[in-house]
Automatic annotation (TrEMBL):
InterPro entries in UniProt: MFS, MFS_trans_sf
Name listed for the protein in its UniProt record: MFS transporter
Keywords: Membrane, Transmembrane, Transmembrane helix
Entry GO MF terms: transmembrane transporter activity
Superkingdom of this protein's organism: Bacteria
Amino acid sequence: MAAGYGDLLRTRHAARLLTGTLLGRLPNAIASLSVVLFARAEGGSYALAGALSAVYGVGNAIGQPALGRAVDRLGQPRVMLPAAVVSALAMAVFALVGLHPLPVAYAAMLVAGLFTPPLEGGLRALWPSVLKREDQVHAAYALDAVAQEVMFAVGPLMVTLLVAVWSEAAALLVINLIGVVGALSVVVSPPSRQWRSEPREAHWLGALRSPGMLVLISSFLFIGIALGSIAVAAVAYADEHGGGMVSSYLLSALGVGALIGGVVYGARQWPGSPEGRLRLLTAALAVGYLPLVLLPGVAGMTALALLAGVFLAPTLACAFVVVDRHAPRGTVTEAFSWLVTTFVVGSAIGTGIAGPIIEGTALVAGFTVPGAAGAVALLVLVAAGRFLRPVPAPASVPVAGAEPRGGTRDTTAENDRNGAVEPGFRTGRQA
């Protein structure tokens, strides 16, 4: 297992791209926490802090697919780095101006969210050209999902440390500076500079014109709802079981479970098509959430949370493979960005609905939301299964922008498993 990941990371540029992307995504990963801490330090209420964080989230949800489409058209360096700089500058304005005047604070949050670079989708678009072998690409998707879990665990600790040593404003500035450095590290790398998307068919829907993509994002909306609802239910459980660090135990156990599952999943090849495997993993994810309604003691609940997280990273990794196979030609970065955005929006919805459900009924009802949402996610995949039929491998075509090594080389289109021209659209035009 370790040898397989070691070979992957020793591949030229792989470790640099993974590390740079994780650093570049750090501001987005801890934005909600850092904004809330800063707003509270400036004397703002929790309601105001939540509203500012929500504006950032809305901007992020709009900006990620739009910037992903721009990356597919213009390349990574011309979009990623300027976007990272603009987002960081907007956060700097927020840190320096504070909450007054309030319209400036809201505008800064909106701009910061809108221009958050789609580094996550960009990395997944690069993997096929960097790693070459399909089994390594699948392992990289899993490793990326695992690294993301680590980032979401370490990021809040970094913010807390910076606040303790310096200040809330300094935490905002330092974290966003790190994000710009990470984005810079990615876009100056040869794979990022050489990568070009396949020519795309002109259509305003972009990646969303693929029925398979619509199925995927519909399903992942509910997976996001499941994960968001667990966070609120964990806090409510902690209130009934001594408070303190109990909610952190549950959420950390969820992350550790995802880490374990992702490492194991990416360490080997699995039989069958990714489309069929995604349905099985989603089913396992939904079933893993069900025992949470038993509400045992803290130790037992922590163990159940760990088990509930095991299939999260494998499901994400498999979904990225399926996206790669079903995204229309020339829309891969946009397609990955749509999946990430949908997952984040779903998580926000889950957070919003779990609280009223718990307050209006009982704690056990809050823990039924993840299992129910997981079941709906599976139902979507099964009911619309005809749109996610396995896609045959494409014919070998030259990759635009790729440099030959020792002569001409042909390889499959880096990111296009749906290589046929879409019927009803004119060829030769850029969307």
